[in-house]
Structure formats: C-alpha cells, structure tokens
Amino acid sequence: MRPPAEFIRPGYRGSGKLENKVALITGADSGIGRSVAIHFAREGADVAVMYLSESDDAEETRRLVEAEGRRCLLVAGDIRDVAFCREALDQVIETFGGLNVLVNNAGTQQVCTDLAELDDELWRETFATNMHGMFYLTKAALPHLGEDDAIINTTSVNAYIGPDFLVDYTATKGAIVSFTRALSNQVVGRGIRVNAVAPGPVWTPLQPATLGAHDPQMLEDFGSDTPMGRAGQPSELGPCYVFLASLDASFMSGQTLHLNGGMVVNG
C-alpha cells in the first residue's frame, strides 16, 4: 500500500489495561485487526490472530505482537465454515487456557451500483463472511467468556449512511449493529459486555483491493468527504478497541462507537 498504513499510534503507552488477558481477533493479519492486535499486546494481552490465507501478512502481525513481549497464535481458515470456527476456539483455549475478549473484525466488500446486477452468490458470500462467521464464532466463544469479558464487533459508518454502491455490505453492517444490541441484552446478566465500533473510511488493504479495483478515482478521493477531509489510519482505531475490551468500559454494553472523521450519524 502507498502510502503504507500506520498500525500503532505514535507515543501510545500501555498501562496494563489488558494484563494477562487472552484476545481472539478475526481479520487481524492487516488493517484494523492488526492495529487492534498490537494495541492489545501493548496493554498486556496474548493474542490469537484469525485470518483467511494471507500468511506473510499474518506472520508480520505475529512479529509485531511478539515484539511487545506477548504470545501470538496464528489460526488460518475460513470463518464461513462453522466447523473451522469451533476448531479455532478449541485451539485458542488449548494454547492459552481461556478467552477474555473476542473481536469480530473480518469482513469483505465488493462495489456494485445496480441491485439488478448484484450476483445472488455474491450476496450470500458477503453475508456468510461478514455476518454468519460472526455468529458461528461468537456462539463457540460464549461458553468460555464470563464476568468482565467482552465481545467487540466491527460494523461500519455505512450502516448509518447507506452508500448506494455497497448495498450488500451495508446490509451486513446494519445486521451487525442489531446483533450487537440483542446479544448484549442476552448476556449482560453474565457480566459480558457486547459493543461495536463503526469505522468511517480507514486506510486498509481492503480499499485498494475493492474500491480502487472498481474505480481508481474512488481510491484517490477516499475519505475526502469526511469533515476532517481525510481517511483514518488503523492506528487511530486500535485504542478504541482497547477501551471497549478493558474495564474502562465497565458500564457500557450494547453501544456503537463512531470513529469516522467527524460524520454525525445520530446512531
């Protein structure tokens, strides 16, 4: 990527907010997920990184986590596969002895400006990756979570603004908001907090691979329509996930935090 993405906020100092916690993060081989993994490690957590197939990127995430003095487990596979999600959870528990934080971050998008041309299979695959995988993994994780543990789901500003060129993706992100609210109400009595983060435009590999591939101008203008006039960096999101994972957010559940460059979405 040019320019390269930034993954850790300059000057960010850990303070033990996640000391000896275990976190599982999907889609953590790059982008927002990698930033979350590094920030969690700097706060004292061991991290399991789930990813599809980008082994070199995943190894770089592991290097960065281990540079913070924490352990890192790489788990490669497809979250659309319920059996894989269950096996991944078993591997995390076997390796680390428990689980405290689940970050459902993996996602995909493809540009389509006409619903009549949106392929049926693409619609199903977008939901399978963005929503079904979240369900499978959360269901497998819940028996291992307890008092003061947390689930954090990555939704999107698109769930609130409804861009016309990402109908299927936007529909999944709206589903994630509702899933977050309903699940929060279901498990709050067990002391488990469930929240979401709704990023605006963030400079990650997903953007050149999708928006840029469709229309280079979309990539050139990426983020310019925010009040801040720019896209965010993954490093600017990592600390938000730290907040939601830690006891700093002990009185917050069922909520969505909006890191979107100043867009007011009233959500």
From TrEMBL:
Keyword annotations of the record: Oxidoreductase
Residue ranges constituting the Ketoreductase domain according to the UniProt record: 21-206
Any one GO molecular function term: oxidoreductase activity, acting on CH-OH group of donors
A Pfam family annotated for this UniProt entry: adh_short_C2
Keyword Oxidoreductase: yes
Isomerase among keywords: no
InterPro entries: KR_dom, NAD(P)-bd_dom_sf, Sc_DH/Rdtase_CS, SDR_fam
Family: Belongs to the short-chain dehydrogenases/reductases (SDR) family.
Protein name: SDR family oxidoreductase
